[in-house]
Amino acid sequence: MEHRLEANEYLAGDYSIADMATAPWISAWKALGIQFEEFPKTKAWHARVLEREAVKRALAKGDDIRRGPGLNASGKDAEAARKILFGQRAR
Q1: Would you say 46 and 11 are in contact if contact means Cβ atoms under 8 Å apart?
Q2: Nearest 5°: phi and psi at 10?
Q3: DSSP code of 38?
Q4: Which end of the chain has the least Cβ crowding within 10 Å, N or C?
């Protein structure tokens, strides 16, 4: 990525699905033990992607979902989520 971003602002030149699909993987840099400072172009690219309004909205939506009732919770919302996720059949 670092090499690719030397000549481009985004992975495919213009912002594209390549950036959308890759940014979440790069967000785990700390957990993966990656020294982000060793990759200044990638770090700058990641910051640019995270500053996009649509990305901010998507990340906020993900946070809302993770704060939701959860699969182990009790109650109507949790039961509805389990019914959607598990036990469905093709017929």
Answers
A1: no
A2: -130, 165
A3: G
A4: C
pLDDT digits (tens, 9 = 90+) for 27-64: 888 888 889 999 999 999 999 999 999 999 999 988 87
Task: Determine the pLDDT at residue 13.
Answer: 94
Conformation bin of residue 23: beta by default, left when phi > 0, alpha when psi is -120 to 50:
alpha
The widest CA-to-CA distance across the chain, in whole angstroms, is 53
In whole angstroms, give the CA distance from residue 38 to residue 41: 9
Task: Write out the two tokens for 14.
Answer: 């213009």
> Which residues lie across from 13 on neighbouring strands?
10
Name the nearest CA neighbour of 73 among 60, 82, 64.
82
Are 83 and 69 in contact by the 8 Å Cβ rule? The answer is no
Residue 85 has pLDDT above 90, yes or no: no
